[in-house]
Amino acid sequence: MRSAKVGSQTTRTTMLCHTYTHSCTTDDIYEEYLIPEGSIVVANIHAILHDPTAYPDPSTFNPERLLCRTPDGELALDPNVPDLLHAAFGFGRRICPGRFMAYQSIWLTLASFLCAFRIERAKDERGVPIDPGGEYDWGFTNCPKPFQCMIRSRTEEYETLIMRAARDEE
Ligand code: HEM
C-alpha cells in the first residue's frame, strides 16, 4: 500500500484513475503522474483489500487470517493485520456515512444467523458434498455466483422460534 496526496486529503491507495468519486482541489503528483485540479479520482478498494503483502493468499476464504492468540491463549483480532474497515467504506471527506450502521447491522445479522443456523455444503444424490466452487461475478461490486448449500436450524427450539416468526409475518 502507498500513500497519495489527493487534494487536501491523504488517501491510502494502490491505483488511481480519473473516473469517479473524489475531486482534486489542487494539482497533485502521484508517482510520475500529474493529477490536475478538478480530476475525479477513485481508489481501487478491491486492490487494497487483495494486497498480498497485507493479506497473504488474498483470494482464499480464510477468516482466521484476522485472528491471533493472546499470551493467555485466547483468540483475539490480530493487530498486525490491517483492519479491513480502513478501505471498505472509502476515504476522507466522502467516506461512507452509513458505515457504523452498516457494520453493526452486518455483525448483528451474521451473529443471529450463525447462532440459529448451521450452513453446510449441499449434497448430491449419492450424499457427496458439492463444492461451491467459489466463483464470483465481475462488476463495480462483486458477488458470489449462485451456489447450492444446506441451511438447517441448529436446534428444535430455534426451528420452532423461526417457524413462529415466519407465521407471524404472514
Ligand atoms: C456494507 C455496507 C456498505 C459499504 C461497503 C459502503 C461503502 C461505501 C463506499 C466505498 C462509499 C464511497 C466513499 C468514497 O467516496 O470514498 C460509500 C458512500 C456512501 N455511503 Fe456507503 N456503504 C455501505 C452502507 C451504507 C449505508 C447502510 C448507508 C446509509 C444508511 C450508506 C450511505 C452512503 C452515502 C450517503 C454515501 C455517499 C457519501 C458522500 O459521497 O459524501 N452506505 N459507501
UniProtKB/TrEMBL annotation:
<feature type="binding site" description="axial binding residue">
    <location>
        <position position="96"/>
    </location>
    <ligand>
        <name>heme</name>
    </ligand>
</feature>
<dbReference type="InterPro" id="IPR001128">
    <property type="entry name" value="Cyt_P450"/>
</dbReference>
<keyword id="KW-0408">Iron</keyword>
<dbReference type="InterPro" id="IPR017972">
    <property type="entry name" value="Cyt_P450_CS"/>
</dbReference>
<dbReference type="Pfam" id="PF00067">
    <property type="entry name" value="p450"/>
</dbReference>
<dbReference type="InterPro" id="IPR050364">
    <property type="entry name" value="Cytochrome_P450_fung"/>
</dbReference>
<keyword id="KW-0503">Monooxygenase</keyword>
<dbReference type="InterPro" id="IPR036396">
    <property type="entry name" value="Cyt_P450_sf"/>
</dbReference>
<dbReference type="GO" id="GO:0005506">
    <property type="term" value="F:iron ion binding"/>
</dbReference>
<protein>
    <recommendedName>
        <fullName>Cytochrome P450</fullName>
    </recommendedName>
</protein>
<dbReference type="GO" id="GO:0020037">
    <property type="term" value="F:heme binding"/>
</dbReference>
<comment type="similarity">
    <text>Belongs to the cytochrome P450 family.</text>
</comment>
<comment type="pathway">
    <text>Secondary metabolite biosynthesis.</text>
</comment>
<dbReference type="GO" id="GO:0004497">
    <property type="term" value="F:monooxygenase activity"/>
</dbReference>
<dbReference type="GO" id="GO:0016020">
    <property type="term" value="C:membrane"/>
</dbReference>
<keyword id="KW-0812">Transmembrane</keyword>
<keyword id="KW-0349">Heme</keyword>
<keyword id="KW-0560">Oxidoreductase</keyword>
<dbReference type="InterPro" id="IPR002401">
    <property type="entry name" value="Cyt_P450_E_grp-I"/>
</dbReference>
<dbReference type="GO" id="GO:0016705">
    <property type="term" value="F:oxidoreductase activity, acting on paired donors, with incorporation or reduction of molecular oxygen"/>
</dbReference>
<keyword id="KW-0472">Membrane</keyword>
<keyword id="KW-1133">Transmembrane helix</keyword>
<keyword id="KW-0479">Metal-binding</keyword>
